[in-house]
User: Fold this.
Amino acid sequence: MRYRLHKAGVLFEMFGKMTTPLWTLKNVTLRGTHRPRLNNVCCEIQPGITAVVGDSGAGKSSLLNLFVGFEHPDQGEIVCHCAATRGQLGVYWLPPGDGLWSHLSVQQHLEIVRTPATDAGSMIDQLLTQFDLSELRRARPDDLSQGERARLAMARALASQAKVLVLDEPLVHTSILRQTNYWQWVREHAAQQQTSLVIASHDLETIAREADQLLILEAGQLAYSGPLEPTARSHSSGSASELLGRILNYRQQHAKT
Assistant:
């Protein structure tokens, strides 16, 4: 397998055969109070950078909960093909609201998730520098701003070196001026560590810049699943097509700059 960086994200390429999916969902349904949170969802999540988008209440967090094993389908089946191996996590979850540990320092957050084989000092120093946290390495979460907490949560996810990072609204509250740099570090670490990303976000500009593949959810139903490319609109309709159009426009604008 080789990795090819491009302006929109990281493309995963396999020579000679198709890549094994990360997850396979077959007719997955999750019950809800007034309607199913997910309704008969069928798709495969491929290696690379996959974005999950949709309005609030569309089912994004419910889908991510299935990926990380916090919930199980009421109907249907989800199969995980990215199980942990000796010395490497299969899946790492970055929850909304960062999920930091109040009793640990910034540096300890990274140290505690690293794999034993990692050159801990070098990697941790690099991540702290890249996410502008070096001077805060001894601080605890209560001493940090919301943006600093979001950056620490992302740095900790990368330090885990898991096969797949499942990220729910990552890098929220961070400086708009610095976000592009932070995402560059994320892409580079993902490529170096052979890590896939699944991102749920309302930030369409980030999705346009980073994602290779897209899932659009509407009221618990999968409205589109496939690559993020101009021909995608021909495979969607209604509000999903409109949303795809907006994301593709952002991608074109990014390519020009």
Summary: The two ends are 30 Å apart (CA to CA). The domain at 2-103+160-256 is CATH 3.40.50.300 (Rossmann fold). The mean pLDDT is 88. The longest strand covers residues 23-30.
